[in-house]
């Protein structure tokens, strides 16, 4: 199999590239000219340099490939560059799909989406058949990934072979999002963390990679798969890490104080073009939004076998 990986230098993309090469597949990576390539330093495979919305670069990268793993995305919450996020997540996805549709023959497109496309399920456990009921969007990321998913589904209706994977929170030793928080905890420097009751699904990045590869090999066209090893509260996460390390669980500040800080830091962040650790949007995700999911379909139909939540956290504690 010859595969193109968009966002090959990123967290999920680099793990996918390594797994594909280890299994003997031919890989091409699409990266920006300014990308940090440190995650790919030890790997020998060709790169095409270009923006995800650069059609000429994509046409070059897609030529002759069997599968496109579309991983590239702008992932962040809070005070973000919304226009840039839309360009990457929406326009970029449209460009990938157009290039795939025009290629001869057209490759499969395996799209890394997110459980966020379901919107706030308000604690209801949902599967792939769930139709979003939230009328608005909780964030620019929420909106742009939903719009991108709509484009993927439209391309599937036009005859493009697409498979969409909706992962929960992706964890791993080099996770750029929650990883720094875990590192602070392991260094005994994380004394406070809000929202202990917040439930979230998690998956190890290498298990997500396994699901992506299974989807390319086995999934029927047009299918959707939720990818999660299970869910737990933030408090339970730190309790598991504490059991493994002997480090005390961070104390939880009162919700009223966290909300107040979010309201105070929001205008400061906007004034100085700074994304603070707390903002109204981040507070909303901590206390108000709850997306719960059933990930059994991928295990039943693809034979996907993720490591357990406790194993994921044990490995992170020992990393």
Automatic annotation (TrEMBL):
Domain of life: Bacteria
Domain NAD-dependent epimerase/dehydratase: 3-227
PANTHER family: NAD(P)-BINDING DOMAIN-CONTAINING PROTEIN-RELATED, PROTEIN YEEZ
UniProt-recorded name of the protein: NAD-dependent epimerase/dehydratase family protein
């Amino acid at each position: 199999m010859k595969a193109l990986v968009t966002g090959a230098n990123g967290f999920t993309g680099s793990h996918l590239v390594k797994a594909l090469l280890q299994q003997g597949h031919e890989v091409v990576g699409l990266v920006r000219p300014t990308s940090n390539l440190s995650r790919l330093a030890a790997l020998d495979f060709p790169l095409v340099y270009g923006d995800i919305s650069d059609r000429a670069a994509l046409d070059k990268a897609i030529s002759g490939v069997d599968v496109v793993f579309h991983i590239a995305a702008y992932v962040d919450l809070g005070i973000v560059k919304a226009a840039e996020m839309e360009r990457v997540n929406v326009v970029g996805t449209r460009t990938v799909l157009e290039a795939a549709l025009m290629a001869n023959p057209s490759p499969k497109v395996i799209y890394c989406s997110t459980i966020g496309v379901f919107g706030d399920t308000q604690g209801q456990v949902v599967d792939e058949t769930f139709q979003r009921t939230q009328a608005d969007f909780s964030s620019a990321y929420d909106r742009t990934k939903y719009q991108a998913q709509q484009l993927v589904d439209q391309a599937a209706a036009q005859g493009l072979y697409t498979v969409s994977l909706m992962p929960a929170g992706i964890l791993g030793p080099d996770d750029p999002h929650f990883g720094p928080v875990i590192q602070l905890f392991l260094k005994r420097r994380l004394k406070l963390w809000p929202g202990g009751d917040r439930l979230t699904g998690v998956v190890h990045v290498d298990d997500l990679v396994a699901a992506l590869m299974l989807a390319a090999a086995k999934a029927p066209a047009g299918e959707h798969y939720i990818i999660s090893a299970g869910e737990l509260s933030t408090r339970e996460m730190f309790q598991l890490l504490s059991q493994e390390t002997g480090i005390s669980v961070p104390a939880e500040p009162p919700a009223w104080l966290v909300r107040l800080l979010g309201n105070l830091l929001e205008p400061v962040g906007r004034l100085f073009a700074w994304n603070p650790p707390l903002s109204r949007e981040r507070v909303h995700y901590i206390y108000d939004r709850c997306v719960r999911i059933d990930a059994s379909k991928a295990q039943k139909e693809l034979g996907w076998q993720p490591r357990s939540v406790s194993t994921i956290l044990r490995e992170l504690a020992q990393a």
